[in-house]
Amino acid sequence: MRIPLFSIAELMAIVALAALDSLEIRLGQSSPSLRCLVYGSLPMQSALIIGLLLVVQRRRQRKKPLPFLAGFEVVGWISLLIYVAVCVGATQSLTWHLACTLTPLLSATGFRPYSTADYTCRYGLAIAYLTAPQLVTALVAGWISQRRREQVLLS
Fold first, then answer.
1. Is 135 exposed, middle or buried (0-12, 13-18, 19+ CB in 10 A)?
2. Could you report how far apart the first and last alpha carbons of the chain are, in Å?
3. What whole-number distance in Å separates Cα of residue 55 and Cα of residue 27?
4. Where do runs of H (alpha helix) occur along the chain?
5. Domain limits of the chain?
6. 115-146 tens-digit pLDDT
7. CA 10 to chain centre
8. What is the pLDDT of residue 24?
9. What is d(CA 22, CA 138) in angstroms, rounded to the nearest whole number?
10. Interatomic CA distance for residues 130 and 112, integer angstroms
11. Residue 37 to residue 25: CA distance in whole angstroms
């Protein structure tokens, strides 16, 4: 597989995105709703923005669009917006669910509570748990879009 080439402007946009992600993580420590919003949306948001850069780059170069990427982007943005709505509307339920789901998993790791390893594991599991549904739906949509395109080409 060929690695996509990015222009300096696109690389600057990716670096700016990483800086904004870092700022959001720093600001997200204050309230539970922001914490859920930041940890659950940052990885997906970053993947979607990089994918959007690839779509724009292909369009600018007048290349054929990629059906997988189109399906991934459309459904990914929809799932991200649904997640944001859940974070805003049901923060207490979401934090309660995370506590009930992840606490037994974290206690099984055997890390000393409040240690660096415990915090790293806690945040890593929370990010993976909150991002997985969004990512899986977007990947499935991309796969369906790709398969549909292949079927159209064969007929």
1. middle
2. 27
3. 30
4. 8-27, 32-60, 67-89, 91-107, 116-154
5. 8-154
6. 787 777 877 888 888 899 999 999 999 999 98
7. 19
8. 63
9. 24
10. 24
11. 10
